[in-house]
Amino acid sequence: MSILHVRNDALDTNPPAGDQYLSTNGSNWLYAVTAIYGFTLLALFAMTFKARAGERFFHYVFIIASFAGLISYYAMASDLAWSLISQANNVSIMGATRQIFFAKYINWVVTFPAIILALGVLSGISWTTILYNICLSWVWIIGYLVAAYTRTNYKWGFFAFGQLAHILLLVVTLSHSRHVANRVGISRDYTMLAGYVNFIWLMYPIAWGLSDGGNRIGVTPSFIFFGILDLLLVPVLAFAFVFLARKWDYNRLNIAFTQYGRVPHSHGTFPEKDT
Asked: Which residues pair with 85 in a beta bridge?
């Protein structure tokens, strides 16, 4: 039983640095988030065996998002994938240097587009609009990442650029996409899911401004904030999608995939989709 440890010694193996750094309690919390992502991944994978042929699209999308979260949170819990960055704000109280975990941003680079893809396919918008929304999310995240690594108050310019991309993304997902979803009779579910996603997304600028941006809260409190947001955004949303999808008509939504390709709007027989 020597492989079992009574305590978390990750910070002994991978020591933190700086004035604001990850604590042992913070590492424990991040390992708990890692476990939830792992459970979500395995649960979604198991549920693919019960889903009908051609109707596993949302399972696959959120499996990838969960996998990215699992790896990223494991790295952060182990006090890996970070840089020590000098701070420009609130230095007298919080200190001059802070651990900035780039694994957090790598996680968002995968999970945000996965969510956008799921919402886009559900709404019925064009693939070009989906790609546009995904690129907006990348600009948003890159703006935050560059801002976090900027050692002066010029960081707020990069934050503003990222936030502009966020606003454009919000407009498309709550306005244009909702109108398209209404045409195929999925408006209620889409509005509920997109509204939930955008509400959670609105919390990210606040969390970033208090942590990697404004240096107002420590590394551990920031991870509690971001961890709750990420859990609400990926595991909770994943199960909501999968359970709601059981009542959706994939043929009518034109999102069913078969051995013949994506099911068209026209009538056809697809034997492998029979229950």
From this structure: 98
Token output for 132: 């546009």
**Residue 124 in tokens:** 């019925």
| Total-model pTM | 0.89
Q: What is the mean pLDDT of each run of 10 residues along the chain (275 residues)?
A: 65 96 97 98 95 85 98 98 97 96 98 96 88 98 98 98 97 79 73 95 98 97 98 97 86 62 48 48
Beta-bridge partner residues of 262: 257
Q: Give the model's pLDDT for residue 103.
A: 98
pLDDT at 263: 46
Encoded tokens for 55 = 């109707």
d(CA 221, CA 66): 23
pLDDT confidence of residue 275: 46
Residue 259 to residues 15, 46, 60, 114, 155: CA-CA distances in angstroms?
A: 51, 22, 17, 23, 49
- As given in the structure block, the two tokens for residue 186 are 């999925």
Chain CA centroid to CA 148, Å: 18
For residues 211 and 265, give the distance between their C-alpha atoms in angstroms, rounded to a whole number. 48
**Considering Cα of 82, then 88, then 92, then 96, what sign does the dihedral take?**
positive
Helical ranges in the chain per DSSP H = 10-13, 24-47, 57-77, 91-94, 102-123, 127-148, 155-171, 177-183, 187-208, 219-233, 235-245, 250-253
Enclosing H/E stretch for 260 = none
Amino acid at site 119: L
